[in-house]
Specification:
Layout lengths: L2 E2 L7 E2 L2 H18 L28 H6 L3 H13 L18 H10 L14 H16 L7 H6 L5 H15 L4
Antiparallel strand pairs: 1-2
Helix pairs in contact: 3-7, 4-5
Keywords: Coiled coil, Phosphoprotein
Family: Belongs to the smoothelin family.
Protein name: Calponin-homology (CH) domain-containing protein
Length: 178
């Protein structure tokens, strides 16, 4: 559990939103120090693709860049490529494909295979899957838990934008890993 110290009161757990704001501040500070062209989370330039400059978003795998037209499609294909060997995973979108937690677990397990035994997970145990994925991502990879387990358990159709942002943070952490 992450805590923050407040002068004159007891430490309180930092909310996922507070962690997101902290991550955003850190990214802003890093980009402010760099005199280069602003970049997207994938490292590509924000310059227009039609201006003859770098594309808006670039993956480290050139095959993914050639196949996908949009950032959303590129990230979806990246997720598919990292989870294709996992059982019970069919990632076709950033909403219902993630609603039982297994896609998050598979994606995290791909990069941290010793963190847990993926074969012991089931689609029916949604709460455990979300808790496991978010906890391992936070504790072992430093990925802030931007999604709330309770919210994810309640929703059969998670908000794709929320899932997309969290998956982007996973991508940013592991983009240079196989």
């Amino acid at each position: 559990v992450t805590t923050r110290t407040v002068t004159g009161s007891a430490a309180k757990p930092a909310s996922p939103f507070a962690k997101f704001k902290q991550l955003d501040r850190q990214n802003s500070q890093q980009s402010a120090k760099s005199p280069t062209t602003p970049t997207t989370p994938g490292g590509g330039s924000t310059a227009s693709p039609t201006s003859g400059k770098q594309p808006i978003f670039r993956f480290t795998d050139p095959a993914l860049n050639a196949k996908a037209a949009t950032v959303k499609e590129q990230l979806l294909q990246w997720c598919q490529s990292k989870t294709q060997e996992y059982e019970n995973i069919e990632i076709t979108n950033f909403s219902t494909s993630w609603n039982n937690g297994l896609a998050f677990c598979a994606l995290i397990h791909h990069f941290l295979p010793d963190a847990f035994d993926y074969s012991q997970l089931t689609p029916k145990n949604r709460r455990k899957n979300f808790e496991l994925a978010f906890t391992v991502a936070d504790e072992k990879a430093g990925i802030a838990p931007l999604l709330d387990v309770e919210d994810m358990v309640v929703m059969q159709r998670p908000d794709w934008k929320c899932v997309f942002v969290y998956v982007q943070s996973i991508y940013r952490r592991f983009r240079n890993c196989q």
